[in-house]
Design a protein that fits this description.
- The structure is a single chain.
- The protein is built from 12 helices and 14 strands.
- By secondary structure, it is α/β, with parallel strands linked by helices.
- The strands form 4 sheets. A 7-stranded parallel beta sheet has the order 3-2-1-4-5-7-11, with helices on both faces.
- Helix 1 crosses helix 6 (about 190-205) and helix 3 packs parallel to helix 4 (about 125-140).
């Protein structure tokens, strides 16, 4: 039986990957700072920011999925790369495959309408630059690496996402939709259970992967910006109004709100389309896992408590 350690197994990508690997017969360990149980996961108490905790949890594993973020998504610039170093050290000690969820934020949205796995990276945000640095660090470390880049996440356990943190209000009926998109501009979305299943299929075929593998997950391509809002309307069964995010007002709030500053940095990815080319992924797996959008959106809104 193969064994994987999931850092971030209580979150979106990590949790879905953990469940997909369990379904494929893997033994899965999850590192958690507070006691947990369930999901078929062997939960280990520890902190991803403590190197010895990661090493202890990783003993004898075949794969490590680094899908963890600093608590509250704070202090990225100072914590993210040191945290990754703990996973690299554990992967090296066990000759394990180190898998990292990637994003579209590695690319310049104004000049990359279609991003291939080897397209030039030119991030236009601080978090995008950190994401680029994370991938580069895994590559130069010499461990066996796997990067799966995807668009903006949504799903039953989405954590911090555009859909659950702004477009709708968790725990509230959907009476309106706040759309960050610009009319006619395409946007890439990724349903988390499909991302987790893709990661599981790739990890399960570790022996067939190159030493450092990069793939793109195409997911749901919303060609004109209306696809995701129309899916929300169909899921709730009514024509709720769509309001546009007032991008011009955000700079007035940004000096007092770090979240607003980060949102402004992401504006280009809504102003310009960045589509992920998944041909190499499909060539390797045969197909990309895909849940119909209406089914995916119903599951997402039900889990968020949005009637």
């Amino acid at each position: 039986m193969k064994t994987a350690l999931i850092l971030g197994a209580s979150g979106g990508v990590g949790g879905e990957t953990a469940r997909a690997l369990v379904a494929r017969g893997w033994q899965v360990r999850g590192l958690t700072r507070t006691p947990r149980s369930g999901d078929g996961i062997d939960w280990r108490i520890g902190d991803a920011m403590v190197g010895s905790d990661v090493l202890d949890a990783a003993q004898g594993v075949d794969a490590i999925v680094h899908a963890v973020n600093p608590p509250g998504y704070r202090n990225w610039a100072t914590l993210v790369l040191p945290m990754l170093e703990n996973s690299i050290a554990a992967a090296r000690a066990n000759d394990a495959r180190l898998a990292l969820p990637g994003t579209i934020y590695n690319y310049d949205p104004a000049s990359t309408p279609v991003a291939h796995p080897d397209s030039r990276q030119a991030p236009r945000s601080r978090k995008g630059a950190i994401r680029q640095a994370m991938e580069a660090r895994i590559d130069e470390s010499g461990v066996r690496g796997l990067i799966l880049r995807a668009g903006d996440f949504f799903g039953p356990r989405p954590g911090s996402s555009w859909l659950s943190q702004g477009m709708v209000r968790p725990g509230k009926p959907v009476t309106s939709i706040l759309s960050p998109g610009f009319p006619g501009v395409g946007h890439a979305w990724a349903y988390l259970p499909d991302v987790g299943e893709t990661f599981a299929r790739l990890i399960d075929r570790d022996a067939d992967l190159p030493r450092f593998a990069r793939y793109h997950f195409a997911g749901l391509w919303d060609a004109d910006g209306a696809g995701i809002t129309d899916a929300i309307r169909r899921a709730v069964g009514r024509q709720v109004p769509v309001r546009r995010l007032p991008w011009r007002l955000l700079p007035l709030i940004a000096p007092f709100n770090p979240t607003m500053r980060e949102m402004i940095e992401m504006k280009g990815y809504w102003r310009h389309p960045v589509r992920l080319d998944n041909r190499s992924l499909v060539a390797f797996l045969g197909a990309e896992p895909h849940t119909p959008i209406d089914e995916a959106m119903r599951a997402t809104l039900t889990a968020l408590g949005c009637g």
